[in-house]
Amino acid sequence: MESISPGERDVCFERLAAGTKAAIDVTREGGPEMMGSAASVLTQYDIEEVQVHCNGAFSQKEIESLYKRFCALDRGGKGYLTGDEVMSIPEFALNPIHQRLLVSFEGVNFKDFCGAMAAFSSRASMEKKLRFVFNVYDATGKGTIGREDMLQILRDMTGSFLTEEQRQRAVTRALEEAGFSQNPALTFSDFSKVMGTSSFSLEVEVPTLD
């Protein structure tokens, strides 16, 4: 079988990272989803508590920006987001893996919303970024992911950009280079090793709102 090039493999995983980022880039200012509930004022204690929860991933201004966005999405003022409210984010609803991402955001309060978003901060560690993506793959919460999980994400994210044969080769090569069999049950540690064989970038910018 023809060997997939390193560049071809990296494109697969870069498209996964970019697509996941786009799906939850909910911190942009503007758009109809910013209308609705007015954000109440966060206390300094609230902000510091969120910063601790997110391991310093966001500055005070970024947290205030995220809170304004959260309150705009939480139109009923319940203090948490429903699935329908999360799906009102266009970038999220149109993304092919939105059902997987929904698990991380449905029913979350503001602190946990920031906790999920922290994986996409430029200040987040690679381990935190990989942990978030691992949980996206592990949709059933079993604590491991397999070859088919990895293939399905690539199918969703690459569409017609790559053929099924190219996707199969991409996963095969990544597993081989990391020293795993072709039908693995990868733990998070294993998954980190596999992903370490390819380029990986997962960041989101949080605008400052005056």
Automatic annotation (TrEMBL):
PROSITE patterns membership: EF_HAND_2
UniProt xrefs under SUPFAM superfamilies: EF-hand
Coiled coil, from the record: none
Single GO MF annotation: calcium ion binding
Domain of life from the UniProt record: Eukaryota
InterPro entries: EF-hand-dom_pair, EF_hand_dom
Domain EF-hand, chain residue ranges per copy: 61-96, 125-160
Protein name: Calcineurin subunit B
